[in-house]
Amino acid sequence: xxxxxxxxxxxxxxxxxxxxxxxxxxxxxxxxxxxxxxxxxxxxxxxxxxxxxxxxxxxxxxxxxxxxxxxxxxxxxxxxxxxxxxxxxxxxxxxxxxxxxxxxxxxxxxxx
Length: 112
Prior knowledge:
Number of helices: 0
Distance between the termini: 40 Å
Helix content: under 10%
Number of strands: 11
Order of helices and strands: EEEEEEEEEEE
Structural class: mainly beta
Shape: globular
Largest sheet: 7 strands, mixed
Oligomer: single chain
Strand content: over 45%
């Protein structure tokens, strides 16, 4: 059974950093592009980044370019998202995704 479990969220001040993790199981992780999405309070789901199977291609939405970094370790079936220079508008639930399947999410709250 495909399973994605995010962790690493929390409360951080503006300008702070967090590193989100996504533990994947139940599929051949190394064969798939993986995505991160987020959903801000009262807003729709927003795609923010993805990474190709061998990490050759990484894409970001404009609002996080230069601040967030996506990475993966296929040997550990793990996906990460490093969040730096966090802004209040980065607040939301963050999800990792394989295709249309997402994990339960991890909450990131940026507040002073």
